[in-house]
Specification:
nine-stranded mixed sheet, 231 residues, 26% helix, 23% strand, alpha/beta
Length: 231
């Protein structure tokens, strides 16, 4: 079995730790300069993972935007954008979502064993559906991605996926962007949920970088020894 991928968690949140405003309108937590930075991280990755709720709520395309970065990937023998990956418990996915567009990127959908037939029937040829066990676990997902040759995995949300990867100690790096405003609504989605985290008051995460990017700030944390190997 191959090693699990180097796993980078990328997230933007409000000052009070929210990913959304609790409304149907998408909350803009970054700016153009930071979006370009994130695009560079995408271009350097083999796969990008988001949860099924992120697909339903935000309808992300998850593509490398820069023509120069896309061309550079192709010159290295890679597809223009990384493989798209999602995890779902109930296969409540619309194959018309941007995630499944015919854009040249491979798509993988991980789900529990008993949901696999429904997911394959719903998605057809739009994505490869992968059995993630019963129950499905993020460790199983990461191990399977490693077996598929994914060496660098970028995770772009949402809160449930971040929580699972962090509490299972599967993250190597966290890039957390803080936007200069508050949401102030407990019904909104937070960056992470309740759980037992490896980093706590008795074991602090290592802050590797602080960078101002316009009106937002990037906090970069090293969460495993592998960070030093890839930095």
């Amino acid at each position: 079995m191959a090693d699990r991928p180097y796993t980078l968690l990328s997230c933007g949140m409000s000052i009070d730790g929210y990913l959304s405003a609790g409304t149907a309108t998408r909350l803009m937590l970054s700016n153009d300069a930071d979006f370009d930075r994130v695009d560079g991280e995408r271009a350097a990755s083999d796969a990008i993972l988001v949860g099924a709720s992120t697909i339903r709520n935000d309808n992300p395309r998850l593509l490398v935007r820069s023509p120069e970065r896309r061309a550079a990937r192709v010159a290295r023998g890679l597809p223009p954008s990384p493989t798209k990956v999602t995890v779902t418990r109930h296969a409540e996915l619309d194959c018309a979502a941007s995630f499944f567009a015919a854009d040249g990127a491979d798509k993988l959908v991980y789900c529990p064993t008993d949901v696999v037939p429904e997911a394959r029937g719903r998605l057809g040829a739009a994505a490869a559906v992968v059995d993630a066990g019963h129950p499905a676990t993020m460790r199983r997902v990461c191990e399977d991605l490693g077996d598929r040759g994914v060496q660098r995995l970028m995770v772009e949300g949402g809160g449930t996926v971040h929580t699972q990867l962090l509490t299972d100690d599967l993250a190597d790096e966290l890039q957390l962007v803080v936007a200069p405003f508050f949401v102030g609504d407990s019904a909104a989605c937070r960056f992470v949920g309740d759980g037992r985290y490896p980093w706590n008051a008795g074991r602090r995460a290592t802050l590797a970088e602080v960078r101002q990017i316009g009106d937002v700030v990037l906090l970069r944390y090293a969460l495993s020894p592998r960070f030093r190997e890839r930095a």
